[in-house]
Amino acid sequence: MDRHRNKATVLSIISMGLGQIYNCQFIKGILYLLVEAAGIFYFSSTLGRALWGITTLGETARHKVHGKFVNGDHSIYLLVQSLITLIFLAIFILIYVINVRDARKTAAEREKGIPPHNFKRSLRYLMDYKFAQAFLALPAVGILFFTIMPIIFMILLAFTNYSSPDHIPPAKLVDWVGFQTFRDLVALKSWSHTFFGVLIWTIIWAVLSTVTTYFGGLLVALLINQQGIKFKGFWRTILIIPYAIPQLISLLVMRNMFNGQFGPINQYLGYFGLKGLPWLTDPFWAKVTVIVVNMWVGIPVSMILIMGVLTTIPRDMYEAAEVDGATGFQKFRIVTLPMILFSTAPTLIMQFAGNINNFNAIFLLTNGNPVVGDYQYAGATDLLVTWLYKLTLDQNKYNMASAVGIIIFLIIASFSIYNYRRTKSFKEEDMIQ
Amino acid sequence: MKMKKFMVTLAALTLAVSVTACGSGNNGGNAAANNGGNAANESAANASADNSGGGAAIAPEDGAQLLVWESKEERAYTEEIAKQFTDKYGVPVKIEEVSPADQVTKLTQDGPSGLAADVVVFPHDNLGRAVEAGLLLENDDFAEETTNNNTEVSIQAVTYDGVLYGYPRSAETYALYYNKDLVKEAPKTFDDVIAFGKTFTDKSKNRYGIMWETGNMYFNYPFIATTGGYIFGSNGTDKNDIGINNAGAIEGLKTYVALKEVLPVKSGDINPDIKRSLFNSGDVAMDINGPWELAGYKEALGDKLGIAPIPSIGGKPAISFSGIKAWYVNSFTQYPNAAKLFAEFATTKDAQLILNEKVGSVPTNKEALESDQIKNDPYVSAFAEQTQNSQPMPSIAEMGNVWSPVNAALPEIWDNGKDPQQAMDKAAQQIKDLNNGSGQ
Q1: Which site in A191, A252, A291, A326 is 20 to 30 Å from B291, CA atoms measured?
Q2: From the candidates B208, B269, B340, which should be mutated to test the interface with A, based on the most A CB atoms within 10 A?
């Protein structure tokens, strides 16, 4: 009794829509046939070039003939165009599979004696049972082309030699080099020294900047919330101001304030007969400076957050603690701190991940300087992300930048996922141990 | 008919502008210039005959419009030129601000995608990179005028592999600005500078005898080159012969180190803004700087401002870096003719004099250099004098690998007292590595 089923399947495999027509679903069948026709029309002209493009990345660069430039293959454009074609191909194959499965399913129902849906009923079925998929199909395609495709493109760059001076299109071609870029990054001394140096500082920075701003904010929030503190609103306002000024302005002002010779801070210290510090010119002190300035910028954020949490702690817990004869510090250790940590742990991890990539704080304040003689295009306070910026915009080493970018992503993703899964709020334990 | 007449007038006008190119043998051209184009018909005929390959041959494309990149400091001149150009050719010109040092990098990106300017300007040390990347059109239609009208040094600087690319507009080097109230006469040697600095420098009051960007290779080249160092050998063309760490360079760097006594400031703390304000307020007596600061300094100091050549080093007159700033035509431009016309139009004698008037540059046009406007300007002639004793920056593509390592080595010597030989050896090694592509 499976005559229908196999026939419909085979027909649909031969061409989209034939199986549907065999099942007497004419409109659906014709629609599928149209998709097939459009696909064949589009792929016949592009697919060959796309496959050639993504494997070779072009064969002739732009060159001069009799003093006139003749356009050749632009490897990077080729790569993008090929990617777009291949994504279309994937969508096409997906539709093909859906069409075969649909034909087979309808035919199977016919064998059981259920008449095939007419077009109206098919639409009804789609709207009733497959509403979410139908509704999300368009945004999904958008995400595919505007989010996923660029990410794939950027990841692919790490496996090419797209870099200045010898592989910048259109005058030169770009080639696939496999994992060579990653190998250079960890094995070539000039690169690896910089990479590990910058990586270690990035981790130190992320930990220190997160811890200092978080606990600084906690301290300030607790102080303001103490009973008997007057003008609470005033203190809050004062402390929120740094957060309200755009970082672009405040950090560039700080940059001048911390100037070792002409900055107001060292001049001020000079009035007290103290020798100023080389705030931005000494590798160690520059690191201290960015941490300190980042505290000034970041503490208000944690403060607001923690103030909000403090209001949610039930009063009766403190009362119970007082009845038990707890000291102020014990109340803090046993009631306040766990409650705060419990509600803010996810934000803390978010802040940590954000600090790994805190571009503004470094770029605006020190621009990664002071320079370090044996680094490749990096300075003592450069984070991976600002180094990446320099590699891309100043040096055109796109492949290296892409490799560094992938590594940053892996670090942040693994950190965040691991930590997040271990937080109590993720495990949804509503009892604090 | 109308078109023909237009072309003829155009030819005459172009000729009038580029009259100098015809040399002495072209009476027709001179006549056209003198008669203000009344004799256009006849002289234009002569012009195309005499001036084959001259500017008469090209006209802007229909519907052409140009985008031009220019620095913030020199924008005033380009705006003026753009206005005149639009009046003359009817081609609208838009200006975008891009720092000249970044233009080649930006052109590499934006050129192929069609977003770049049609006409760009950059110092010639970037020329090799740009040509290697196929970003520039040759200066072919106006080659004759350009070559005849500009100084030989400037033509060499904008030529790469024997092909002329640029339309030179100004020669840049740096000299010693000094405040006549504080410095009685311009120091002849750096020993004089140190002697004066000892009497004037007072770190607690932030007064310094001299200040310059000690971490920037551009301004510190005299300490390398005067006593026999160099960047690349064979006049800056041999990438394998690096001379920043030879005996001569180390000799000159001794003077550099000695100057720390009168400028006890970390290189990272000196930036152009701070330096400018201190010099303007009379707290810094001398500044090694380029002509782009001239207009501002003149305004601040008036008659007190003096300019002298850079003091001698090791008994030899200091050799500075010179850069030729020139216009170039983007090879991806949709309107090559209009772009070439603009580049030519913006580098004529008159245009260079406008640039000098607005910014205080040193022209490359021979006639402009001879004009009263330049001759009678003590400041510009001081720069011109220093230019006589300067070396053009190398323009090979590898020049792009030199800045970072040397700009990292100089602060190590200046701030941390590192041995110049060691620091420069390391920088030279890094440049070699980058040249050989291990930096890829």
Answers
A1: A252
A2: B269
